[in-house]
Automatic annotation (TrEMBL):
Residues 6-207 form the Glutamine amidotransferase domain. This is Imidazole glycerol phosphate synthase subunit HisH. Heterodimer of HisH and HisF. Keywords: Amino-acid biosynthesis, Cytoplasm, Glutamine amidotransferase, Histidine biosynthesis, Hydrolase, Lyase. The gene is hisH. The active site is at residues 82, 195, 197. It is found in: Cytoplasm. It comes from Cellulomonas phragmiteti. It catalyses: 5-[(5-phospho-1-deoxy-D-ribulos-1-ylimino)methylamino]-1-(5-phospho-beta-D-ribosyl)imidazole-4-carboxamide + L-glutamine = D-erythro-1-(imidazol-4-yl)glycerol 3-phosphate + 5-amino-1-(5-phospho-beta-D-ribosyl)imidazole-4-carboxamide + L-glutamate + H(+); L-glutamine + H2O = L-glutamate + NH4(+). PROSITE patterns: GATASE_TYPE_1.
Length: 215
């Protein structure tokens, strides 16, 4: 059986491209805002384009904040893409206005400090040792379109569960006027600032590796 993947349809995101890309790598994909379908799927993809505040409003309108929280609480995989990654952080700052994010990770998403913004085009990334998403892709380039990013990842101290430490998040970095977070793998929650669905063979391999992890 192919893994069942829901792409959350909340009005923001390159959803058709994401659906096609996931289907090409073997997922049984549904584009929907249905809460139960999103909760029951083997994997949930949260896309996102545009403004942080608008994406958060759209997510909350369909109960996406509750869906993500419930899935992660049950160890069910979630993949955020572009602004769908940014909203996983505590807050976003746009034009001096702060908007609460989903708060799955501490940290602030703010404007890139670069001479040319938006950052648009192909760029290399620096994956950490042990990355599953980017296994075999350290020398590849991925497609970015963004003006904002998380430029730090404050979750440095690894919490513990009883006597057993939880694994530290795996953070992938890229650079545009300074380092920024390009991807994170944190248990069931993974996310990319770049668009794997627009990143050719490298993006397809990343999505294939995520889908394979759902089996």
């Amino acid at each position: 059986m192919s893994p069942r993947v829901v792409v959350l349809d909340y009005g923001f995101g390159n959803v058709r491209s994401a659906v096609r890309a996931l289907a090409r790598v073997g997922a049984d994909v549904e584009l929907t805002a249905d809460k139960q379908a999103a909760l029951d799927a083997d994997g949930l993809v949260v896309p996102g384009v545009g403004a942080f505040a608008a994406c958060m409003a759209g997510l909350r309108a369909v109960g996406g904040d509750q869906i993500v929280d419930r899935r992660l609480a049950g160890g069910r995989p979630v993949l955020g893409i572009c602004v769908g990654m940014q909203v996983m952080f505590s807050e976003g700052v746009e034009h001096g206005v702060r908007t609460d994010g989903l708060g799955e990770w501490p940290g602030v998403v703010d404007r890139l400090e670069a001479d040319v913004v938006p950052h648009m085009g192909w760029a290399q990334v620096e994956p950490p040792a042990g990355s599953v998403l980017l296994d075999g892709l350290a020398d590849e380039r991925f497609y970015f379109v963004h003006s904002y990013a998380a430029r730090t990842f404050p979750l440095a101290d690894v919490p513990t569960a009883g006597e057993h430490p939880l694994p530290a998040p795996l953070v992938t970095w890229s650079d545009h006027g300074g380092r920024f977070v390009a991807a994170v793998e944190n248990g069931p929650l993974a996310a990319t600032q770049f668009h794997p669905e627009k990143s050719g063979d490298a993006g397809a391999q990343l999505l294939s590796q995520w889908v394979s992890s759902l089996r």
